[in-house]
Amino acid sequence: MNPVLLVTGGGRGIGAAVARLAAAQGWDVALNVVRDMASAQAVAADVRALGRRALAVQADVSDEAAVQALFATVDAELGPLRGLVNNAGVVDVAQRVDEMSLARWQRMFAINVQGTFLCTREALRRMSTQHGGAGGSIVNLSSAAARLGSPGQYVDYAAAKAAIDTFTLGVAREVAQEGVRVNAVRPGIIDTEIHASGGQPDRVQRMAPQVPMQRAGTAEEVAQAVVWLLSDQSSYTTGSVLDVAGGR
Description:
With 248 residues, the chain is of the alpha/beta class.
């Protein structure tokens, strides 16, 4: 039986690239999306074309009941979970902090932080040897924004991703003796649709000259790091945050 991986936000961008690469390396894959099931089903078809099992499930990761239902569906349809990639996340339009609303902050942290917390909790309840599990690997998607602060763009997003860095370190040390490794990947400027969702479809082109490598990264380049951290090739790596940012 192949190991089972759940990728949140798996319908596009980095999540989709992770799903395809993980399938190529032997994982059965469950994909979660909040709305766009058509995209998730397309990625699931790619996974099946590689000879793996695939499942697409609609759920809002900021909703506790929805997350619990998501994990129960994966249990029932694919079997014991061995990997989780907390990829679901949002940005917002570029604003200064003194222009931002409470509603914006609540949405930002509900999805980017609480969603990761909820999914990690459910994964640990299945993976940890303390709960009778067989171990596993969790990879959280952070951002170089956590180091840079993103002034004048989205300080709230940067702060949310900094929370993910700290969460990764704490959980990794908490469960290090329970067969579960927890790491994070911090992408830099990556050419995906997320920039357009924040109202900046040209952001990649504008920001590329600020990157020492003078280009944006690809979702596939980030996926290589994520899937390595999921794999047994990184068996002595936990509590790490890996920058995939072209030197920025």
